[in-house]
Amino acid sequence: MPEASASLDLPVSAEDVWKLVGGFQSLPDWLPLIVESRPEEGGHVRHLRTADGAVVVERLHSYDAEARTYSYTIVEGPFPVSDYLATLKVEATGDKSCKVTWGGRFKPVGISDAEAEALFKGVYEGGLEALKAHYQA
Q1: Fewest C-beta in 10 Å: which of 8, 19, 50, 136?
Q2: Is 132 exposed, middle or buried (0-12, 13-18, 19+ CB in 10 A)?
Q3: pLDDT in tens, 66-93
Q4: Does domain 3-24+58-136 have CATH number 3.30.530.20?
Q5: Could you give the strand order of the β-sheet that contains 34-40, starting from the edge strand earlier in sequence?
Q6: What pTM was computed for the model?
């Protein structure tokens, strides 16, 4: 299956970054594209609304606060893929620095592997740039 990912080094402790990004419903706190995250099923499902009104429904697949990582699947959304599984991970690289990695694998539907990879690489890179901007503000 095709894959895409992006990573970012930040001069912020992994613990502090995880406090911001580690909650499954926390996307609106750091990702301006997402204006709402409504939890369902005890917080295991998030209904996201984007700034342009699109709806994306995602289900938590796995969560490990100690390892600072979670994975999720897309249940519904505007993306031309199926079998999507993404992971967000925050790793300490020092006392006051970390590496954030966001990536996924998926099966393209109606587009090429390269088009799907480029689409999600853009999503992940844009998201991490928003996270970087959050800490630069």
Answers
A1: 136
A2: middle
A3: 999 999 999 999 999 999 999 999 999 9
A4: yes
A5: 3-10, 97-108, 81-94, 69-76, 55-64, 45-50, 34-40
A6: 0.95
